[in-house]
Specification:
By secondary structure, the protein is mostly helical. It is built from 14 helices and no strands.
């Protein structure tokens, strides 16, 4: 048989141009990948540096804060940091609580401001009628007027305006509606001044007192002494009105009579009226003085001729 020759397939030749392009594409891809890797590495490095820096700053701040806290802890705390009150505020509170306490010997327990006649006349019969009577006296009568005189005398004494203080004291003494109320307020005012000078003397107090020639009524005395001791006006006002109302309730409780629980209920019910009256008195001027409690003024006039009396007014 004739020999069979196998026919070889012709080889496929890749053009060199394609090979070169392929190599260029691969090279470009590798360069881009390398660039991306370098960029990622750089970003990671920057983030690491920022984190380390931030951590160092935070560590420094925390360390400094802890150091300061330790230094503060090792030092004794001032008095006002422990009890929330400065030394002057504590002294002011102590004096107000003493001066306007029922135990302070100004003789307030012996005066009823006409309540004794109101009980005999039937105007005050029980806890409810006593509360209404005192609310009117406080907001529209002698309570408000006394508050205005206290505020004005405190301001005049604080500014060392002797002429204004003298005029306020004269007007306050003339504003009292009856002889017995005059006795009540001037006697308490004189006792308050005498005890304050004897037990609570301070610079400037004698000069303020000597600037007033007429008898000093009670609210002017409280305003003058508290100003001499540099006690702020608002707490002085609230303490004064609270003491005034408490004394009225004490007189009413003995006259009606009432129990201790009823007395405290009346005091609690009058709290918002005391607050409102104090605010009005602090904002008022002498031109705002006035009373609309004619029946209470009449009671203080009629008390003088009562057949039997437990109180001096």
């Amino acid at each position: 048989m004739p020999a069979m020759h196998m026919r070889r397939k012709p080889r496929t030749r890749i053009p060199g141009k394609i090979i070169r392009r392929t190599i260029m594409v691969i090279t470009t891809i590798m360069i881009m990948a390398t660039t991306i890797m370098i960029t990622i590495t750089t970003v990671i490095t920057i983030i690491t540096v920022i984190t380390i820096t931030t951590t160092n700053i935070a560590t420094t701040i925390i360390t400094t804060t802890i150091t300061l806290m330790l230094m503060t802890t090792n030092e004794p705390a001032p008095a006002d940091a422990r009890d929330g009150m400065t030394e002057s505020e504590a002294a002011a509170l102590y004096r107000l609580m003493t001066w306007l306490s029922p135990a302070f010997p100004v003789g307030a327990f012996s005066y009823s401001s006409g309540i004794e006649w109101a009980v005999e006349a039937g105007d005050i019969r029980d806890a409810g009628s006593l509360r209404d009577w005192l609310a009117a006296m406080l907001a529209d009568g002698s309570g408000f007027c006394d508050g205005v005189f206290l505020a004005q005398s405190h301001r005049a004494a604080s500014s060392r305006d002797d002429a204004a203080l003298r005029e306020i004291a004269e007007l306050a003494a003339a504003f009292v509606p009856s002889r017995e109320r005059q006795l009540e307020t001037t006697t308490q005012g004189r006792a308050f001044i005498d005890i304050a000078r004897a037990a609570w003397a301070c610079d400037g107090l004698d000069e303020m007192i000597s600037a007033i020639s007429n008898p000093i009524v009670y609210p002017v005395a409280v305003g003058l002494v508290s100003a001499a001791h540099q006690i702020p006006l608002p707490p002085t006002m609230h303490a004064f009105l609270h003491a005034l109302v408490s004394n009225w309730i004490s007189a009413g409780a003995r006259l009606v009579p009432l129990g201790q629980t009823d007395s405290q209920r009346i005091l609690a019910a009058l709290e918002p009226i005391v607050v409102a009256t104090a605010r009005r008195a602090l904002e008022a001027s002498l031109d705002d003085l006035g009373s609309a409690t004619f029946r209470a003024d009449l009671a203080s006039l009629r008390h003088e001729t009562q057949y039997t009396r437990l109180f001096r007014s």
